[in-house]
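Page 37, continued from 36.
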């Protein structure tokens, strides 16, 4: 929807940009952009096979995704897929049949993201500890038998980095108003990129407190450690605002 953002990213040739998308707006014009800028890697979001994807994303979405994959493959454009893993689809999306079908369609990277509830009413869909053991075991098998595919797991692969990578440890999220947030599932900010640089935002008071407090290293039940610490993050945000009340660093009205 924001071609200007993609064009700006495309100009940074030394950086690869995975572009996560539902895949429904990749027309001939966008394929031309992708062909000319190989550092933009489209990652198409899906939920599994046809019935599973259409049930969550709308009727006809799966067929549109397959058409998009075919067009990307015909144009020699490298692409991947992103799958939200939850209790109802994990056996399907971690099966060899599913991953092989995607490989034959031209997909070369699979990103598995554990489901994080939008609210507490859907918490029962989130993988529990037993499920995460199953996910980890299946991924190990897939990596051993399908070396032609790159498999990434979030937050599973964070274990090798010693904990959650949010709040600037490895990444952070920028909301539509410019607020720098720890991650998409922890939408709280004390700093706006409308006022400071990206480099300065990495040292936001809230991020510094989160990185030094140990919150990112805590055990958790769902796909996001900070999602379960909503009240603690709010308190740290308020503490950061009290400690650093200076002008432009505080972003108003950017809490979702």
């Amino acid at each position: 929807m924001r071609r200007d953002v993609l064009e700006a990213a495309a100009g940074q040739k030394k950086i690869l940009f995975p572009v996560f998308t539902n895949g429904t707006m990749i027309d001939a014009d966008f394929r031309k952009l992708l062909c000319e800028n190989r550092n933009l890697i489209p990652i198409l979001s899906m939920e599994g096979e046809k019935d599973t994807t259409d049930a969550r994303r709308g009727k006809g979405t799966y067929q549109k995704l397959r058409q998009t994959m075919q067009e990307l493959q015909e144009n020699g454009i490298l692409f991947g897929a992103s799958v939200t893993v939850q209790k109802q689809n994990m056996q399907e999306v971690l099966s060899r049949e599913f991953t092989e079908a995607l490989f034959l369609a031209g997909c070369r990277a699979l990103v598995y993201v554990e489901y994080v509830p939008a609210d507490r009413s859907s918490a029962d869909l989130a993988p529990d500890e037993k499920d995460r053991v199953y996910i980890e075991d299946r991924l190990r098998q897939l990596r051993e038998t399908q070396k032609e595919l790159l498999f990434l797991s979030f937050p599973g692969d964070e274990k090798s980095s010693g904990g959650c990578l949010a709040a600037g440890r490895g990444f952070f999220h920028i909301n539509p108003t410019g607020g720098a947030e720890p991650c998409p599932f922890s939408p709280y900010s004390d700093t706006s990129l409308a006022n400071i640089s990206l480099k300065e935002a990495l040292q936001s008071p809230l991020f510094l407190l989160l990185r030094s407090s140990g919150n990112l290293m805590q055990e958790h039940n769902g796909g996001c450690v900070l999602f379960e610490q909503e009240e603690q993050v709010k308190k740290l945000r308020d503490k950061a605002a009290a400690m650093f009340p200076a002008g432009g660093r505080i972003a108003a009205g950017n809490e979702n």
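The chain is about 40% helix and 15% strand. Flag for discussion at group meeting. Residues 93 and 99 are 7 Å apart (CA to CA).
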